[in-house]
Amino acid sequence: MTGQAKTPEPRRLYQQIADQIRELVDGGEFAPGARLPPERELAQRLGVSRPSLREALIALEIDGSVEIRMGSGVYVSVQPPEVRSGTKSLGESPSELMQARAALEGASVQLASSRITPAAMENLRATLDAMRHEIDAGRKPLDQDRQFHVIIAEQSGNGVLARLVENLFDERHSPISAQFRVKFEDKNTWIFALQEHEAILAALEARDPLLAQAAMHLHLDSSRRRWVEN
């Protein structure tokens, strides 16, 4: 008895766009070492959004096909790698990931606003204090950021929702999301994130579910813009 054939994983949009760019390079449209057109022009030419294009360019940089020089542009690598099977998956689309998180965490914070315990509220405040300390010290408060969101999800009273929030949050360690962090996160982005966390906590302290949901949506949408759209 033979096993059931494994269904191929659907190719993500950034993989498809990266393959299109690679085809242009392989076809001689852009020579090794050449600068690619500006993002806006290239996105229009390919008929895609700029966030999706940026994800594709990051994927191409990871596999060594292009070099992104901040403030200068994107250049075809002088010796680009030979890729025969197309751009491999490097994790979920960062833009889609943040949209999914906004939907789930908006629901979880709304539920948590009427159920959160005083102890959890204290833990959130302590987490933000620790986050501020890490930022002041010039470090990225990744652990504190995760803890803040996980505490809220756990206080929703829905274990399934809490697990989904954790899983989506940890997707930020995928190769493509990690590369976005390296390029587009700095002290200022974390200062903004901390301020947005403070607004979420204030809404929870007020026991206002709609305000809490709005604050979470604003935070995650702002994070997506800082992270993906820069």
Which structural class do you get from the secondary structure elements?
mainly alpha
Whole-number average pLDDT?
A: 92
Number of helices: 10
Low-pLDDT segments, ≥5 res: none
Tell me the total number of β-strands: 2
The global form is: elongated
- How are the strands of the biggest sheet laid out side by side? 1-2
Number of structurally distinct domains: 2
List the secondary-structure elements in sequence, H or E.
HHHEEHHHHHHH
The share of residues in extended strands comes to under 5%
CATH class of the largest domain: Mainly Alpha
CATH superfamily of the largest domain: GntR ligand-binding domain-like
Q: What gyration radius follows from the Cα positions, in whole Å? A: 20 Å
Helix share of residues?
A: 55-70%
Q: Which fold name is given in CATH as the topology of the largest domain?
A: Four Helix Bundle (Hemerythrin (Met), subunit A)
Please tell me the CATH architecture of the largest domain by its name: Up-down Bundle
The biggest beta sheet reads: 2 strands, antiparallel
**Through-space gap between termini:** 53 Å
